[in-house]
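Researcher: We plan to redesign the surface later, but first we want a full-length starting point. Tokens attached.
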């Protein structure tokens, strides 16, 4: 049982490290609030810049993954779609992922502002 508990603590430490690296302002909140703050931050709507970024990024990745007509006839349809899917994942993470990170950071700024105003009201 101790091994399972150690593994859980290790995963929690890694998760907190990644959260503090991707969302540096999260350290302004108490650690017990981090999970709920991240959930609230992800619920923020996309602004117009992020929306354009997402649409443009998906369109660009689609353009990059287009098959040459000669390649399209030489490979079966299921294999072609599988290759496109596998290639699309890292491209989307690189091109569109930062838009999601930007939204999460904006949401976290809002959560921190709400937390601070609640703290001032209690003092």
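Model: Full-length starting sequence:
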């Amino acid at each position: 049982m101790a091994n399972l508990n150690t593994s859980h603590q290790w995963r929690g430490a890694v998760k907190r490290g990644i959260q503090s690296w991707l969302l540096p302002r999260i350290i302004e909140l108490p650690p017990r609030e981090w999970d709920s703050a991240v959930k609230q931050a992800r619920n923020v709507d996309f602004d117009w810049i992020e929306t354009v970024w997402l649409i443009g990024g998906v369109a660009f990745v689609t353009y990059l993954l287009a098959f040459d007509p000669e390649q399209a006839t030489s490979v079966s349809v299921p294999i072609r779609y599988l290759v496109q899917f596998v290639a699309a994942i890292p491209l989307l993470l690189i091109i569109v992922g930062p838009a999601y990170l930007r939204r999460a950071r904006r949401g976290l700024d809002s959560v921190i502002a709400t937390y601070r105003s609640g703290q001032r009201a209690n003092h």
